[in-house]
Amino acid sequence: MALRLENWALPAAIAVWTLSAAANAATPQTQRNEATLVATPHDVSVGKLVQSPGGEIIGTVGDLVPNASTGEPEYVLIVTSSGTAALPFWAVSHLLRDAHFVLSPAELASAPRVGAGRDRSDAGWKREADRYWQAYR
Hints:
Strand content: 15-25%
Strand order of the largest sheet: 4-3-2-1-6-5
Structural class: alpha+beta
Radius of gyration: 22 Å
Order of helices and strands: HEEEEHEEHH
Helix content: 25-40%
């Protein structure tokens, strides 16, 4: 009798796991702004798309500016049709959705710019970017 119960228990456990996995797969996973989610350097790479909430491509990640002492990304430079905007890396978690960033075009257009000739170690543009994106801290 115990042999038959064990034979029954394993298929039942597999069936429960399969149903659970199917339910999770059917749940949309578009939100990445959960409080426990922290972006890692692997989440952001040059060429990653920046889209509007409607799905229009409004820019791409042009470069990552590393922290001078740790080497970890400190700022993400987003290339748009109107220039290059700086985004602090700490704001990334709030803006990642699936495989791209989602930002309103107006918000990105108003973001502080980093000119081609501007020194990447310059604290001025970093302060401007930190101040502008403060709501995402």
